[in-house]
# Entry
Amino acid sequence: MLLDRSLEALPLFRLSDSADESAIDFTTDEGRWRVLPAPGERLPGTFDQDVYVELLRRFHEADSPADGALSFTLHAFLRSMGRRVDGRTYEQLRAALTRLERTTLESTGVYRDAASGAAVTGQLTVLSSVHIDRRRLTDRDQLALFSTLTNNEPGDARIAFSSAVRGNMAAGHTITLSAPRYFALNSPVARRLYRLLEVARAEGGTTWRVPLERLAAQLPLVQRFPSHLQRVLQPAHEMLLAAGLLREASFEQDGKTWFAEYSIGPRAS
# Structure
């Protein structure tokens, strides 16, 4: 499956259970990136991250429709993510899709439009539209036959990716990901780090040396002390090593700056 390389290089999803729901703010030498929640809503989190990857998997399998549109049932979508199907997860999925439409991504010279070759200054979203319809009443009448479902839960969704995301996908400004290997990782941090490692592969090869402070902002992580960051990252490293997605991972101090150093494994098929 393919993902937008520009978007993958930037933080988007909260990866911890911190109550801090303020905007994500990420600064580079080129400019600034902000992730702003819709009024009264929180930022996308760990479940939303997985919904986003599953949407892109389906987009790729649908041969990347030009209008960016996908249709699916909530039930089938949750099943393909390996999630339990019940009232709670239906509501989680509805909320996640809505957040991917309503969360504002603000780029000041950092998100790259591959078609024009220019860095974007302006606002964008992941999804441009989301429509979720409850099942028709005649369909819902049949649900009483299934004890695990309630009458108001199943539904059909139609979403469309924003022009920015589908434009970069069409231009080939992408990274390649293995969805089965992604979902086999049992840590949101490992899942996000896998995607960042593929950005590093696309941009520079099979090794990546990054200041720990920058990596924390890029993932993003709320921890800031090097010792705390290493404790959070170490289990993710072990998962990626065991999966063959990393050959080697280490931390190194150079003066006052700590670095994470990676030798990236072969691209997953």
Notes: The chain has two domains: 2-176, 180-264. The chain is about 40% helix and 30% strand.
